[in-house]
Amino acid sequence: MTTVLSIETSCDETAVAIVNNRKVCSSVIASQIAIHTQYGGVVPEIASRQHLLTINDIIAQAIDQAGLKWSEIDGIAATVAPGLVGALAIGMSAAKTLAIVHDKPFIGVHHLEGHIYASYLSAPELKPPFLCLLVSGGHTSLIHVKDCGMYTELGATRDDAAGEAFDKVARLLNLGYPGGPVIDRLASQGNPTLYPLPEGNISLPGGGFHPYDSSFSGLKTAVLRLTQKLQAEGKELPIADIAASFQHSVARSLTKRAIACALDYGLGTIVIGGGVAANRGLRSTLAAAASKKGIKVLFPPLEYCTDNAAMIGCAAAEHLNRGHISPLDLGVQSRLSIMDVMSLYEPI
Looking at residue 214, what DSSP letter applies? Predict the structure, then answer.
């Protein structure tokens, strides 16, 4: 049974967890949302500084919460890619220092692989192969999960990620930051079919559309034009109806592509990961469509949808069990394909 202390600082949450294989022993998260809200989005320099100020206390809390000694911890992990370089560097430096001081192996983890492993925390019996629909503020991908460290990206967004689109539409409607939770809440009070909004399709050179790739920038523009039209007519904006119509379009688009991809590749399970996995519209739309096709859908618990260190620890424990260890001179990267995960580890 492998026990890992993991650190996640890829964006604006300082998170530390201790995970025993697929069981969470402790999970502590210090969110920076209140700090970045006044700027309407994450300011990288401020995020890095806040990680530096809080990380030691968060590590201490995680160890205390788990009630473990350092001798009972088998490895130290940290998110090393992708993400904000300054923020990643804080977590990685802390993890490497702990690994050296306590003579433990260091495991660098790909942030997106962590989101894939979030569902293992509530469904420890889950086994590849399966399809992962990863939807967050920075990423929207359909990933064929073949095994630990073995992934093929089958679909992606060509512009805005789904979570990014939620934030931008929320800004258009003066709903504040982050946009996902407030749009989800308002959508439950509105009519999702009142304003038919376009589904972003990616044209293929020979005709037709890409079956799995997404686009959300046109949808965002459609919401902008809708609000401008209503305002020009002197009408009060029906915020709840616009939010519901927007959310319905996103959920419909993601569901259509995920179901088609799973069926085409003969995958009977779809795992959802990322912050948008908490969205109620997506959960209900995808679950209903998958049920009709006999496809199983797994959503991680809400506390593991957004960035957290427990998912990072779960992925790290799996790698450590397989003898995958990262070199201490490993650096952080703002971008790294999910298909290059194994480049983070020394050859066995």
Answer: B
